[in-house]
Amino acid sequence: MITDSKRKLIIPTIPQVIVPPHPEWPPLSPQELKALKEKVKMLLKQQNAVLVAHYYTDGTLQDLAEETGGCVADSLEMARFGTTHPAHTLVVAGVRFMGETSKILNNEKRVLMPDLGATCSLDEGCPYELFASFCDQHADHIVVVYANTSAKVKARSDWVVTSGIALPIIRHLSDQGKKILWAPDKHLGHYVQKLTGADMIFWPGSCVVHEEFRAVALERLRKIHPDAAILVHPESPEAVIAQADVVGSTTALINAVATLPNMEFIVATDKGIFNKMRQVAPGKILLEAPTVGEGATCQSCANCPWMGMNSLHNLAKVLETGENEILVSAELADKARIPILRMLDFAANLKK
Ligand code: SF4
User: Fold this and answer.
1) Which end of the chain is less packed: N or C, by CB atoms within 10 Å?
2) Residue 95 Cα: closest atom of ligand 1
3) Residue with CA at minimum distance from ligand 1 atom 4
4) What is the mean pLDDT of residues 182-188?
5) Phi, psi of 82 (to 5 degrees)
6) How far is the CA of 266 from the centre of ligand 1 (A)?
7) Which residue's CA is the nearest one to ligand 1's atom 2?
8) Do domains 122-206 and 210-288 have the same CATH topology?
């Protein structure tokens, strides 16, 4: 543990997260790819299942989700979609907390995932026992957790937020004079605090993908492409966010590519998002924000290794075998559902 002397806080030392190598999938010939896609389509129908994919997964999975009546979305929309679709089985191509959230909101449905080992550095870096103890030490704070957390951590919180809704929720709590304990992404937390002036304390977690974007290299790239708009996800470090023309959730960044007049964009988020960006803005030039500084090397290189664990191969397998079902006990789901529904209700009121 380290002490933040300014605020007299004990900041937990979080476990080091081991980042796996990006999985390599066997290459498929055009015929094999077509056959595997047809097989998945047939299995989805047979199993009364729908595919819900995140923007960071492989483009083939994203396209297949849309072709088969499923959805490609950010984690907030993924959670909402499952509650409105009539399918009995939700197949979540994403990372584990997304599958858990789907299960929590759809307890009567079967939720499958291509790989249960697909986790997230934010979730891994926020183990329940350590987190609960941090909350207990600051019992006068409202606990707000990012969606990228386990069901147990969510159950210990007052509010769950996604990057798309974090800002208005924190503003709402701050306007009520609440002190906020924020977990687990420190960069998103600091960004939200800067814009709202909220009284917040932070869990020191980060996303291994966004953490690697480099401000100095980004400045250099902008000089080479002076007309490019810089789009940054708020899980990125402050110095990267400071250079952004648009800071926002995956959905906000996709909308920016579609609506801004620029023809070039430098994008600081997982490059899986380029699949949807190319769809909504064909002809525009998309550049990856640099992930290496002087002498450094990237681990994830703007491509989440856990998201990469989803492929057509293991998608077909879970549909065939029923393996990799997400299970959350009814008791835990009942507790974790409360802060998630609070967020969804808030989002619905905001839309009105
Ligand atoms: S991109 Fe970052 S936040 Fe998203 S799943 Fe991967 S590690 Fe987690």
Assistant:
1) C
2) 5
3) 120
4) 98
5) -60, -30
6) 19
7) 207
8) yes
State the fold for domain 122-206: Rossmann fold (3.40.50)
Name the residue of 17, 22, 55, 56 to mutate for ligand 1: max ligand atoms within 8 A of Cβ: 56
Tens-place pLDDT, residues 153-169: 999 999 999 999 999 99
Pocket-forming residues, ligand 1, beta carbon under 6 Å: 56, 95, 120-122, 148, 207-209, 270, 304, 306-307
Give the atom of ligand 1 at the shortest distance from the alpha carbon of 207.
2
304 Cα nearest atom in ligand 1: 6
Question: Comparing C-alpha atoms, which of 275, 192, 277 is closest to residue 238?
Answer: 192
Radius of gyration of the chain (CA): 20
Res 70 pLDDT > 70? yes
CATH node for 210-288: 3.40.50.10800
Report how far ligand 1's centroid is from the alpha carbon of 205 (Å): 11
Whether residue 205 contacts residue 125, with contact meaning beta carbons closer than 8 Å, is answered with yes
DSSP, collapsed to helix, strand or coil, labels residue 179 as: strand
Beta-bridge partners for 131: none
Please check the confidence at residue 45 and state whether its pLDDT lies above 90: yes
In the numeric block, which tokens belong to residue 243? 């250079």
| Bridge partners, residue 49, by sequence | 89
- Domain map (residue ranges) of the chain: 31-118+307-328, 122-206, 210-288
The beta strand positions in 219-322, using DSSP E, are 229-232, 246-247, 264-268, 285-288
Smallest CA separation from ligand 1 atom 6, residue: 304
Q: Which atom of ligand 1 is nearest to the CA of 94?
A: 5
Cut 0.85: pTM above it: yes
Give pLDDT tens digits for 110-142: 999 999 999 999 999 999 999 999 999 999 999
CATH architecture under which domain 31-118+307-328 falls? 3-Layer(aba) Sandwich (3.40)
Name the residue with the closest Cα to ligand 1, atom 8.
120
* Beta bridge partners of residue 268, listed in sequence order: 232
The pLDDT value recorded for residue 79 is 79
